[in-house]
Design goal:
The protein is of the alpha/beta class. The protein contains six helices and eight strands, in the order E-H-H-E-H-E-E-H-E-E-E-H-E-H. Helix content is about 30%, strand content about 20%. Helix 4 crosses helix 5 (about 130-135).
């Protein structure tokens, strides 16, 4: 019996270990389970902000009234939307089932984002890429939910029983 391949997982490249955060750093995830997924080639790393054409390092951005502005007040929404679209295209091409994205990010936040005042204040909300994926049927988890994401990615897509 051939080993049935498990579903792939889209992941924020900063969690994967790429230095693509706005400040040039990363948010590498040290979780043993994440390392297993990485080592078995199931993770598909993307940085929507780089995909959208922003450089690293870059001026930090936050969402305000549905638009994305950088700290200098420039509207950078188009970069974020382009990056979200590219991330979705990669997810579809790779047959991704779920995503693990960095919480709090204007691209990747799935539950919390910054409030647009650059004060570090977090509010409920979704980043541009997270929303795009969710709207297209790809569930988004954050870096604390690797286990949940793996369970869903491992599941039989034809079996909807929990």
């Amino acid at each position: 019996m051939p080993h049935k391949s498990k579903g792939k997982i889209l992941v924020s490249a900063c969690l994967y270990g790429y230095c693509c955060k706005y400040d040039g750093g990363n948010n590498i995830l040290k979780s043993p389970l994440f390392q297993v997924l990485k080592n078995t080639g199931r993770l598909v790393p993307v940085c929507p902000e780089e995909l959208g054409g922003l450089s690293t390092p870059r001026i930090p951005s936050e969402i305000k009234d549905g638009k994305v502005y950088n700290k200098e007040g420039e509207d950078v929404t188009a970069f974020f939307e382009k990056g979200a679209q590219k991330a979705l295209e990669i997810a579809k091409k790779e047959g991704v089932r779920v995503a693990i994205l960095k919480q709090g990010s204007p691209s990747c936040g799935s539950k919390r984002i910054c409030d647009g005042t650059f004060s570090g204040t977090k509010i409920s909300g979704e980043g541009i890429t997270a929303r795009k994926l969710i709207e297209n049927g790809i569930p988004v988890f954050d870096e604390t939910e690797v286990h949940l994401a793996k369970v869903l990615a491992d599941g039989d897509p034809h079996n909807h029983h929990h």
